[in-house]
């Protein structure tokens, strides 16, 4: 018993040492604030942050090259440009209880604006908008409703935001077809959920549009349209991509988060070995993720939905007192909420001209992209 | 007593390790831990959330601990939990009857589902000596993909493709009485079931012939066989009970803390159960306490993130460090043995065996 006591004393001493160390380190590091989940808005010209904007992440990490990252980038920009303090929390699981817990944590810590990405938050936001009346909520890709009743009820302190992924996929499809002229295209999706499906359907329509109107010959086969089933299994993404390339596919559209990262890596390996292997990125501009040599990248272009703009805009609106509470907003091609990057080093001038023509037609309503499956593959 | 000291040391070292990590990344460990514990205990709602977070861990911890006692390393608690929870959800969504009967049916379904999932590795171990570590991990993935297929095909929600329909309130363990008592927390009757399970398992292990036989197999399979214990049957029985416990954990998670089952997720409670069992020294009471401790960590983490500049990833690492130390309590055991022996050697050879081993160590 005595011995164990002495052991405990030793432990205490170590703990005390650790505490001393912290004070020194604390002084050095807090200024930089780098690599931290928190941005202190006060850095911006000594202005006091007007309010605190928090985010709760969906399943997956903050650097998922997709949803979480996009939302967070918007908040980071708000910190830089608007002097708003921002922070994200990562829930332990993906149940409503987990989400509610983190939203409550943010609220208790004084975050009166809470941005959440993903339809999984729908029921949690429904409960929160009534529970925390003086907080504002932004729900991206979903609309609040109860578990029993899918009719959306957007509270006056909530904005729900949707994207027209099919239009984004359509433009990527047109760009791909015009650039490559002929060959075969494939699609790797994450989970078979509406945003991913809409990318897929839009892409197929884009390819078809180019084949019909712009004289290209790009084919898509049934076996080359695959939903992997997760957003994080990058090994499986690499395998799927390898199989497709081996079957003669030239270009793969990945709408699959981390699975897409695996596909990009496979494409990079092939490109390094001198073979042609193209990838079309998703959500953000993934050009940099596909760089394999110098500044050459396997990313032909990316089908973007500007999640970062959406979250930034909402913070800005709240700061200016114009928060569109109670509304459901759709970001589509008409308000430039979706599209392909403005700079595409792998696309020729000619391709960009044709894509811009397609954009004009979409905006004017001459060409319409269906958000339904119809007779498309999967 | 010794086990208690080992576990406490493990927790302490873990906390120190986490504190060092906080210090190295430029945060104040005392402040961090203050908010971590406040987040789990500050008010009745947070306390309730902590208990609820710990509930599934009690089941999986108990499951792993029970198999350990028979010398089996059940890594498949995640899969058994998933399948048990799935079976309970199937009953909950399709049967319409009075609440007590319905809940009883769901509990039985969860028990059976988990037991079936553990029976296969148990049988393989008993008949063909297939190592249970390998087969239970494989069963995890079979469960994962079975759910992945079955939920969208048969239990799909109307709007959402990746989860089942929500269980009606009467088919969940939710209790307004408990929630109100804990200020709107999501604590539920799963905790009652967990406590009952702890008592039953403690009784089986300590007071019954079955428990004695299983422990004997755990200590030494061959001598148990020599003593006339049917080893193969014991292995299968142990796996059945272990799996049933994990299955019940699935019900506590999917029909208690949550109200539906999601695809594409292997519940983390399965693997955490191993750490819970190790920290609880494989005793039912120890498991109960350590599961609640883990619940506290998971529950308080978010508040720590919100109140300090510690990023969520560091918070995850801190918890991982604590788990790591908890899981290496065997090392702690060795360390204590060595210190004790050295002390004996130093006090001048009072015992007969002490000095000898002391010299060897020196």
Automatic annotation (TrEMBL), chain A:
Residues 26-55 are annotated as: Disordered. Residues 1-18 form the signal peptide. Residues 53-370 form the ABC transporter substrate-binding protein PnrA-like domain. GO terms for cellular component: plasma membrane. It is found in: Cell membrane. InterPro entries: BMP_lipoprotein, Peripla_BP_I, PnrA-like. The keyword Lipoprotein applies. It holds the Pfam family Bmp. Residues 26-46 have a biased composition (Low complexity). Its main location: membrane. It is a lipid-anchor. Keywords: Cell membrane, Lipoprotein, Membrane, Signal. Belongs to the BMP lipoprotein family. This is BMP family ABC transporter substrate-binding protein.
From TrEMBL, chain B:
One of its GO terms (cellular component) is plasma membrane. It holds the Pfam family BPD_transp_2. The keyword Membrane applies. The chain crosses the membrane at residues 75-95, 101-120, 132-151, 186-205, 274-298, 318-336. It is found in: Cell membrane. It is a multi-pass membrane protein. Keywords: Cell membrane, Membrane, Transmembrane, Transmembrane helix. It comes from the Bacteria. InterPro entries: ABC_transp_permease (IPR001851). The keyword Heme does not apply. Its main location: membrane. One of its GO terms (molecular function) is transmembrane transporter activity. This is ABC transporter permease. It comes from Paenibacillus sacheonensis.
């Amino acid at each position: 018993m005595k011995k164990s006591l002495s052991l405990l004393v030793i432990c205490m001493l170590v703990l005390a040492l650790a505490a001393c160390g912290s004070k020194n380190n604390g002084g050095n590091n807090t200024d930089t604030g780098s690599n931290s989940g928190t941005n202190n808005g006060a850095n911006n010209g000594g202005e006091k942050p007007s309010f605190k904007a928090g985010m709760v992440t969906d399943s997956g990490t903050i650097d998922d090259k997709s949803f979480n990252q996009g939302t967070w980038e918007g908040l980071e920009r708000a910190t830089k440009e608007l002097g708003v303090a921002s922070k994200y929390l990562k829930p332990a699981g993906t149940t409503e209880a987990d989400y509610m817990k983190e939203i409550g944590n943010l609220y208790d810590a004084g975050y009166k604006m809470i941005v959440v990405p993903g339809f999984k938050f729908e029921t949690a936001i429904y409960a929160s908008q009534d529970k925390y009346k003086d907080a504002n909520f932004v729900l991206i890709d979903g609309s609040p409703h109860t578990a029993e009743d899918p009719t959306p009820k957007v509270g006056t302190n909530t904005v729900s935001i949707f994207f027209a992924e099919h239009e984004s996929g359509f433009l990527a499809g047109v760009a791909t077809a015009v650039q490559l002229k002929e060959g075969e295209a494939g699609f790797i999706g994450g989970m078979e959920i509406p945003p991913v499906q809409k990318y897929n359907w839009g892409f197929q329509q884009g390819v078809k549009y180019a084949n019909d109107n712009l004289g290209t010959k790009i084919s898509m086969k049934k076996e080359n349209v695959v939903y992997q089933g997760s957003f994080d299994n990058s090994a499986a993404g690499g395998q799927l991509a390898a199989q497709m390339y081996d079957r003669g596919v030239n270009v793969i559209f990945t709408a699959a988060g981390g699975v897409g990262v695996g596909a990009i890596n496979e494409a990079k390996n092939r490109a390094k070995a001198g073979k042609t292997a193209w990838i079309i990125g998703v959500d953000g501009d993934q050009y940099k993720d596909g760089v394999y040599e110098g500044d050459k990248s396997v990313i032909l272009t990316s089908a973007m939905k500007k999640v970062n703009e959406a979250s930034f805009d909402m913070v800005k609106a709240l700061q200016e007192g114009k928060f569109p509470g109670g509304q459901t907003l759709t970001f589509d091609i008409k308000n430039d909420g979706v599209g392909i990057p403005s700079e595409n080093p792998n696309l020729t001038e000619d391709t960009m001209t044709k894509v811009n023509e397609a954009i004009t037609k979409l905006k004017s309503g001459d060409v319409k992209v269906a958000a339904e499956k119809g007779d498309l593959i999967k | 007593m010794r086990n208690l000291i080992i576990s406490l040391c493990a927790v302490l070292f873990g906390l120190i390790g986490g504190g060092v990590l906080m210090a190295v990344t430029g945060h104040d460990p005392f402040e961090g831990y203050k908010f971590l514990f406040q987040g789990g205990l500050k008010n009745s709602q947070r306390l309730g959330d902590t208990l609820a977070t710990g509930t599934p861990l009690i089941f999986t911890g108990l499951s792993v601990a029970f198999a350990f006692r028979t010398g089996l390393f059940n890594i498949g608690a995640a899969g058994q939990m998933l399948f048990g929870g799935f079976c309970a959800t199937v009953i909950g969504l399709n049967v319409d009857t009075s609440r007590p009967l319905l809940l009883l049916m769901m509990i039985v379904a969860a028990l059976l589902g988990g037991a079936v999932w553990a029976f296969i590795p148990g049988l393989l171990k008993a008949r063909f000596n297939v190592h249970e570590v390998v087969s239970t991990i494989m069963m995890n993935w079979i469960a994962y993909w079975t759910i992945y297929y079955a939920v969208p095909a048969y239990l799909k929600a109307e709007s959402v493709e990746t989860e089942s329909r929500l269980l009606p309130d009467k088919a969940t363990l939710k209790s307004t009485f408990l929630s109100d008592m804990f200020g709107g927390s999501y604590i539920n009757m799963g905790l009652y079931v967990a406590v009952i399970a702890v008592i039953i398992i403690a009784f089986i292990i300590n007071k019954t012939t079955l428990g004695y036989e299983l422990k004997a197999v755990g200590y030494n399979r061959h001598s148990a066989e020599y003593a006339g214990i049917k080893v193969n049957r014991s292995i299968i029985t142990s796996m059945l009970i272990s799996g049933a416990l994990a299955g019940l954990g699935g019900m506590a998670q999917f029909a208690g803390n949550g109200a539906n089952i999601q695809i594409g997720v292997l519940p983390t409670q399965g693997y955490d159960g191993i750490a819970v069992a190790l920290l609880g020294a494989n005793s039912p009471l120890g498991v109960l306490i350590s599961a609640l401790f883990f619940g506290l960590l998971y529950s308080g983490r978010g508040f720590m993130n919100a109140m300090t500049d510690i990023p969520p990833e560091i918070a995850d690492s801190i918890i991982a460090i604590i788990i790591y130390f908890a899981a290496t309590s065997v090392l702690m055991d060795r360390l204590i043995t060595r210190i004790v022996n050295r002390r004996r050697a130093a006090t001048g050879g009072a015992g007969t065996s002490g000095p000898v081993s002391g010299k060897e160590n020196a």
